[in-house]
Write a structure and sequence with these properties.
The two termini are 41 Å apart. The strands form six sheets. The protein has a nine-stranded mixed β-sheet, with helices on both faces. Strands 9-10-8-12-14-15-16 form a seven-stranded parallel β-sheet, sandwiched between helices. The longest helix has 18 residues. The protein contains eleven helices and 27 strands. It folds into three domains: 65 residues, Peptidase S8 propeptide/proteinase inhibitor I9 (Alpha-Beta Plaits, 2-Layer Sandwich), CATH 3.30.70.80; 258 residues, Rossmann fold (3-Layer(aba) Sandwich); 119 residues, 3-Layer(bba) Sandwich (Glucose Oxidase, domain 1), CATH 3.50.30. It has 523 residues and is of the alpha/beta class. The N terminus is likely disordered.
């Protein structure tokens, strides 16, 4: 399989994302806000509070499961007045939650003809005795954008789900691909000559999907997430996997995860992709494991959040997994006799083009000398979309953007429509191609059922799946005991002991199994 890649989701001004997933609905008026209103105990207080909300012009958007609270949209001025009402216990912001979005040949215990993502071996999933044959006693709940039901490489019979709480669509449809990619890392099947394998590939583990992100927006609310987590509990989940987050904490959400922890459920979430020290929630709650990302060389991913909440690390760079059938992009690039390993330009149209390679500089101006040619463009100065459009408007037939720093990268056109195929290349590949100008370059962007994604979103399902895998051997352990055992058996990386980049270190399935075998649960 040719390498593909998607851009890392970035925390910016609150955790803006490249994988924008939730249907946000109509834009709110400037003076309107969304809050969670918690009532004081008793049915009379609830009635009085609801009446006050209605009188203030509030619109109830969501009933929080378990009663006692609602998510409400109302004016900022009304919020201040309602806070003084005797029947209302608490009003807090309904914070937004965002999705946070190298291979090896097959070998034992995997069937031939599959690609084994490097992360599977890095977390020791292939070293477990009888592999995941006992995983049928565990259920992993994935809160995300849905699930590509019917994918050639994903379970069907062992999967259940809840449709989007906001009404954006069924759980079995994933228009944004994020949730399906997460699911593949957890449970892609060990089936001959098809795709990849997950940490739990024997079609034993049970999955429950709760769709909180739609196909055309950017976020969900903390109230939605709290309800989704409760749906996971109602479905009998042991592990909750959340490749999502946002910058603001929320008392309603925090209480939900505290209650789940008390019920024996292990909740795991992405640390965030800002590459800074900001805390993302729900990962920042004490009841939730915060997962950082590293690469195939066990080096910290520079986009991964670093803070004292980071608890454990897992592969999150160029992670190969499933996407809904036919929605991935596979890229290929040859120039003359040399075959390169390009990255994807998210949003590029599909197509295959062969034409002479031409130097298009920084791609920041129209230049008709590249008409009928493949534009070789240096990264820098302007957006990728502008570079590709300038090539297209100059008559170029394809575009290759090469890096201006060490290594390869994934680009995005940011939703800008172009008509020519485009992809990315590393700095060294770019330097090589500058010595091949005039030679025939073949650029191909074709459909695939698989894709490489980057992000703590990709690290999170590794940890969630390892937790379920290890737990399946010791089902009498509690979720908190499994959490402690995973931390105590992690491969220490970076600064000795727990640190802000790796937490306790790289999650290790076999080491955790051996530790529990020798010392018991939670030691």
């Amino acid at each position: 399989m040719t390498k593909t890649s998607f851009p890392v989701s970035r925390l910016c001004a609150g955790l803006g994302l490249a994988f924008a997933l939730l249907g946000a609905g109509a834009a709110h008026a400037a003076d309107t806000t969304r809050v969670i209103v918690s009532f004081k105990p008793g049915s009379q207080a609830a009635q009085l509070a609801r009446a006050a909300i209605a009188k203030a012009g509030g619109k109830i958007k969501l009933e929080i499961l378990g009663g006692g609270a609602v998510a409400v949209e109302l004016s900022s001025g009304a919020v201040a007045a309602l806070k003084k009402h005797s029947a209302i216990d608490l009003i807090e912001e309904d914070a937004k939650r965002y999705p946070l979005a190298s291979t090896e040949p097959s070998g034992p215990p995997y069937k031939p003809g599959q690609l084994v993502p490097y992360g599977i071996k890095l977390v020791q999933a292939d070293q477990m005795p009888s592999h995941d044959s006992l995983a049928g006693n565990r259920k992993v709940c994935i809160i995300d954008s849905g699930y590509g039901l019917g994918h050639e490489d994903l379970p069907t019979a062992t999967v259940t789900g809840d449709d989007d709480i906001g009404g954006a669509g069924p759980w079995s449809v994933d228009g944004s691909h994020h949730g399906t990619h997460v699911a593949g890392t957890i449970a892609a099947l060990n089936n001959k000559n098809k795709g990849v394998v997950g940490v739990l590939p024997r079609n034993k583990v049970k999955l429950h999907i709760v769709k909180v992100f739609g196909d055309d927006g950017t976020w969900a609310y903390s109230s939605t997430l709290a309800n989704a987590a409760k749906k996971c509990q109602a479905a009998g989940a042991n592990v909750i996997s959340m490749s999502l987050g946002g910058p603001l904490p929320n008392a309603t959400e925090r209480k939900t995860f505290d209650n789940l922890k008390a019920a024996g459920i292990l909740s795991i979430a992405a640390a965030g992709n800002g590459g800074n020290t900001q805390t993302s929630y729900p990962a920042g709650y004490g009841a939730v494991m915060s997962v950082a990302a590293l690469d195939e060389n066990k080096a910290w991913a520079t986009f991964s959040q670093r803070n004292s909440d980071v608890e454990i690390a897992a592969p999150g760079v160029s992670v190969l997994s499933t996407v809904p059938m036919g929605t991935g992009s596979e890229t290929a690039l040859t120039v003359g006799a040399i075959t390169y390993a390009p990255g994807a330009m998210d949003g590029s149209p599909q197509g295959t083009v062969a034409a002479p390679l031409a130097d298009f500089g920084l791609g920041d101006a129209i230049d008709t000398s590249v008409s009928g040619k493949v534009c070789l463009i240096a990264r820098g100065n302007i957006a990728f979309s502008e570079k590709v459009l300038n090539c297209q408007n100059s008559g170029g037939v394809a575009a290759v953007v090469f890096n201006n720093v060490a290594g390869g990268f994934a680009g995005t056109l940011g939703g800008v429509s172009t008509t020519i195929p485009s992809l990315t290349a590393s700095d060294t590949e770019g330097a090589s191609m500058l010595g091949q100008l005039g030679e025939t370059a073949t650029v191909a962007v074709t459909a695939s059922n698989y894709a490489f994604f980057d992000g703590t979103s990709m690290a999170t399902p590794h940890v969630s799946a390892v937790a379920a895998l290890v737990w399946s051997y010791f089902p009498t352990c509690t979720g908190e005991q499994i959490r402690i055992s995973l931390n105590n058996s992690a491969l220490d990386l970076g600064t000795a002991g727990r640190d802000v980049k790796f937490g306790y270190g790289l999650v290790q399935a076999k080491s955790a199994y051996d530790r529990i075998t020798a010392l018991g649960c939670g030691n």
